[in-house]
Amino acid sequence: MTNIRTIAGRQFRSYFNGPIAYIVVAVFLLVLGFLFWQTFFLQQRATAREMFNYFSLINYFALPAVTMGLLAEEKRTGTIELLITMPVTDAQVILGKFLGVLGLYLVMMLLTLPYVFSIGSLGELDWGPVFAGYFGLLLQGLALIGIGLACSSFTDNQLIAFFAALAISVFFFLIDKFLPLMPRGLQPMLEFISFDVHLNLLRRGVIAVRDTLFFLSVAGLAVLIAFRSLESRRWS
Amino acid sequence: MSNAMIEARDLSKSYGQVDALKDVSFEVSRGEVLGFLGPNGAGKTTTMKILTCFIAPSGGTASINGADVFDDPMGVRRSIGYLPESTPLYTEMLVLEYLEFVAKMRGYTGTDARKRIKKAVEQTSLGDVIAKEIRQLSKGFRQRVGLAQALVHEPPVLILDEPMSGLDPNQASEIRDLIKEIGRERTVILSTHDLGEVQVTCDRVLIISKGRLVADDTPEELRERSGKASYRVTVADDSKGDEKRIRDLLGKVKGVDRVRPRTADAKGELIFAVSPSGSEDLRRELFQAAVDGGFVLLGLEKKAEGLDAVFRDLTTREADEPKKRKKKKATADDKKAEARAKKKARDEAKKKAEEEEAEEEEELESQEEEAAADSDSDDSASNDSDAGSDDSDADDDSDSDDSDSDSDDSDDEDEEKK
Predict the structure, then answer these.
(1) Looking at chain A from residue 83 to 142, which residues have their Cβ under 8 Å from any Cβ of chain B?
(2) Which residues of B284-295 are buried (b: 16+ CB within 10 A; e: fewer)?
(3) Which of A38, A40, A139, B246 is the most exposed place for a label (fewest CB within 10 A)?
(4) Cβ B106–A233 below 8 Å, yes or no?
(5) What is the mean pLDDT of chain B?
(6) Which tens digit of pLDDT belongs to each residue from B201-249?
(7) Cβ count near A157 (within 10 Å)
């Protein structure tokens, strides 16, 4: 447990030691602020729903960017070798990495709180959906971070990791948009794996076990793949 | 067996069809500094990665400090400090920050961690750069950080992969001293392809070639094992056209295998490298030959064959022979087999040398041209003599004792210039 925390801590700090975190967070807040406030006053309603929409949309691009280096960069520079030959298990390395990014993601979520409070000061805000919205963002984040981590574990090239993660993320985002074009038999299944379908429910303020489990499963599966992929170096 | 810190038994590793490592066995005892020598791609790094449990062997096993790489990888990792090739570090971190991270990963906190970090920093003289980012450091200092990182938990075993590569001579010698000091209380394995380094730092040398262990001995013994010396004969160059005559005379001395001209240091001198066919001292005979032949001997030096010649011999020849050489100083049988292999190798070299003879003749003449300002019989085609011919012939190396691999290059350059 200490090891996981140490690795996560180092990963988290490494974002803020370099420019990456600042760039990502700044761009994220700029884009989110722009998209959100642009239309906010037209709605004439004190709701944060649109913000969660945009936030989750940006996630499909931002999270592949912050996860791309997790293992790929360590593999490229060789630091992975030093890390792994310390008395840690591969699972601890993977979990530490995962939690390190999660920390950054939580910072991103925290930084949107001023938006929410601003909305609250402008009108009567229903806090139920806000809570559910953040919960949904957290779940989506877990899944996307997992996907990014898995992609990063297969290559030592950050760019490849980024585009692979982006492709997979966008697939999960777009899948329900193409539902009418899909064979009827497949539609329920495809609808089920669509991120947006699950997120929409959460944004409405409905926290269902089904949606929660869906995202947790995706995250768990992705982390497992990353773990296996890291472990496979021993036998290749 | 009880005092073997590192024990490798029949280690094999194959990547697909390629055998990176084949039945490598060795032991390293407590307090020993072992040099792991071999050309690039011979399997040094693979072996080290197996010993550190980064990868698993496809056959055989190894144990460190009693912990098996399969059964107790955590135990193995606790016992080792590892410095991988090219010193990968988190370059965005401060030196101190990094060492704190390492100490924490090793399970040390608070004052204990601070004490250990302080000690490692002192050992590696990192005090001045402790508050700097690693990326700002020179290669030499990074190497020290790498070593400090490996020392924080005071491991009984240190595994260093090419710790001196990419350093300038000053840095290399500093690191070398450091390793020597560290090696006083610890078991150290270091891999390298620099032979000078091995001679200075290591108690024992393993030579590995194409995934197989081809030698396991002390540097001195290895050199002796080749059993050969060579002689550097300097002769006054009184009259023109002498070189050929003297060369023939030297060549006729009993026990001389071959004579090769060398670049003269000064005008009026001719230098020959004489390689004996046996191990008996030829200095008397060479002197006598000078007296009989009526030429003036300015210098006569006997030199033990450099380790690099042994190295080249083992790593280039061995590969052609399917012969399996299991373990080191093992049985007398093995020794004999080795001697036989050596002889075979030597014969091959001789044959090759004869083939090269023609080319050399030309080489000789081009040198003559320089030594004696005008030569009667010159062959203009000689100018593009084959500089590479020197390389293929391990027997011939008469360069200084502690010659590192460079010596040959410089030779080649000399010849190329002509």
Answers:
(1) 84-89
(2) ebbeebbeebeb
(3) A38
(4) no
(5) 76
(6) 888 888 888 888 888 888 777 776 665 677 888 888 776 567 778 888 8
(7) 16
Q: Answer yes or no: do B293 and B199 share one domain.
A: no
Query: Which one of B217, B240, B263 terminates a domain?
Result: B217
Q: Which domain holds residue B315?
A: 226-417
Q: What is the pLDDT of residue B75?
A: 93
pLDDT tens digits, B18-54: 888 889 999 999 888 999 888 888 888 999 999 999 9
For residue B80, the surrounding DSSP H or E stretch is strand B80-83
Q: Whole-number mean pLDDT of chain A? A: 91
Q: Give the type of residue at B170.
A: N
What pTM does this model have? Answer: 0.74
Residue-level pLDDT at B294: 80
Residue B176 and residue B48 in one domain: yes
Measuring CA to CA, which residue among B354, B358, B348, B405 is closest to residue B386?
Answer: B358
**Residue B343 pLDDT:** 61
Question: What's phi and psi for B119, nearest 5 deg?
Answer: -65, -45
Chain B residues with CB-CB distance to A17 below 8 A: 92-93
**Does ipTM top 0.85?**
yes
| Structural contact between residues B337 and B325, judged by C-beta atoms closer than 8 angstroms | yes
Å between A185 CA and nearest CA of chain B: 42
Residue at a domain's end among B190, B217, B244? B217
Calpha distance B98→A14 (Å, rounded): 11
Asked whether residue B257 falls in the same domain as residue B203, the answer is no
Q: Given a cut of 80, is residue B154 above it in pLDDT?
A: yes
Q: How many domains does chain B have?
A: 2
B236 φ, ψ (degrees, to nearest 5): -70, 135
